[in-house]
Amino acid sequence: MTSRVAARAAQPRGENYAASKAAVEALVRGLAAELARHAIRANAIVPGWIRSPLADPLLDADAVREKVLPRVPMRRWGDPADFRSAAVFLASRASAYMTGQALVIDGGYPVF
């Protein structure tokens, strides 16, 4: 499943979206507790600011680039390719003892 950093950070007029993403993380934890005894794991990937055809117009706006990008320690927007390894990890035996977790991939956004 995927959540978003909006589940963890407040944004004016973003309450509905944030609540829906927080619900995804709660669902992951509940599924993990319920399904672990059947050897089924439930985890989420939590992306930050990611380039996509839907997000690009926003991310390319001067105001967003000037206000948000400086708060990303890696100083770049994420790319869908940044999640490939995480998804493979979560689907592999390498994460066999990991369940109920939300793996945040956001370029360090909340540390600033």
Descriptive overview:
This protein has 112 residues and is mainly α. Helices cover 35% and strands 7% of the residues. It has a two-stranded parallel ribbon. The two termini are 26 Å apart. The relative contact order is 0.21. The model has no long low-confidence stretch (mean pLDDT 90).
Observed structural traits:
mainly alpha, 112 residues, globular, single chain, 4 helices, two-stranded parallel sheet
Strand tally: 2
Mean pLDDT: 90
Gyration radius from CA atoms, angstroms? 15 Å
Structural class, by secondary structure, is mainly alpha
End-to-end Cα distance, whole Å, is: 26 Å
Assembly level: single chain
User: Could you name the ranges where pLDDT drops below 50 across 5 or more consecutive residues?
Assistant: none
The main pleated sheet reads as: 2 strands, parallel
User: How would you sum up the global shape?
Assistant: globular
**Helix-residue proportion:** 25-40%
Secondary-structure element series:
HEHHHE
Which secondary structure elements does this structure contain, and how are they paired or packed?
Layout: H1 15-35, E1 44-47, H2 56-59, H3 62-67, H4 84-91, E2 102-105
Parallel strand pairs: 1-2
Task: Please give a quick description of this structure.
The chain is mainly alpha-helical and about 110 residues long. The protein contains 4 helices and 2 strands.
